[in-house]
Amino acid sequence: MILENHIRGRRRVLDDAKKARLCELIDQESYTVEQAAESLDVSLRTVQRERRYDQDFDHEVRLALQQSPDPLKLMEHAARSHWRAAAWLLERTKPEEFARKPVNMTSLKLVATAFRYIQEAALETVPAECREALYRHTQAAIEQSFDCCFPMRGKWGEPKIKQLPFATPLADVQSSKFWGEPVGVLHDYDEEGNIVFPPPVDPAEVAARQARVAELKQRLAERRRQEALGPRPAAGILSPKTAETTEFNATKSAATISDATEIPSPGDPLAATDSGALPAEPTANNILSPKPPETTTTVANTSSPVDGNLELVIALVERTIDDECPETWHDTEELDHPDAQDPDIRLRLLSERLERHRRKERRQARAADKKAKAARKRAQAQRRRAA
Question: Compositionally biased, Basic residues: which spans (predicted)?
Fold first, then answer.
């Protein structure tokens, strides 16, 4: 009976995967048992109860606790709740900015500023044609001085200078010239040792190639924009009909209207009414209509403009489903039904499928928010009890 109740009971909160992860956090990340349980969203009493029931799990936890902890990781964990640990980390990881320094101790930035000031003063004392040579000599001396005074310099061996307290226009000009010099080119040589220069490039060919590349880029951007916006009717046609059916001839239409609106004589029995329409004549089927019987028949196979709009809306909904929930296409039984081939029914089925997916995502987001809120409350309660 006990075994049957254990098998059919509710799922255990601390399963094998969480047990392994808890031991890993204690062993490799230097977590305490309480911190590891909190990170796994498990209470400390659950871990203690499981250690009493499961001897293998208790043995694994003991072995993990016996491992020597990592001091840096311990300080990182402590920095979340203790300001002294955070201050210690800042002093050790960023000594240039946060470490305590004596009063007469200088830094790399101050030395770089002093050297740059001396270099600027030296460049001001020489003529303009000699400044480039002087800059090269003084810059080489500055680099050697930095290597001697600050062997542990910043990245790429350059001092990390954000902004100087004064302007150095002459040194800036020479620096831009120094770094803007052309780089040496490795030429090709023939069998006799002569330099083989590459063939000259035709500017017209380069311009044509750039024009083709620009055209291809423009076409690609236009295609991507059309794919993002979906199919659109042709220019100047605000109708789902084809271009041939929407053409309008003003001359022909005016002639037709003038012929149709010609005023008959007063004695004509077929004179139009006040509204301009001919009087209704009863047909063989007693249909009072000014149209002939042929025009009152309904053609069922004629396509309606609404069907074109529905097809466009269906395509947009299908594209939205492809972007948001492509996994729903695995279940196509209801869409393969013969009744689903009707545009109205198919649009309703696709809209319901998309709405179900969005409701599911909203439920999952609310559940995740509730779970995170509950975890924060438990953590606050544990910190209050510990204090």
Answer: 373-387
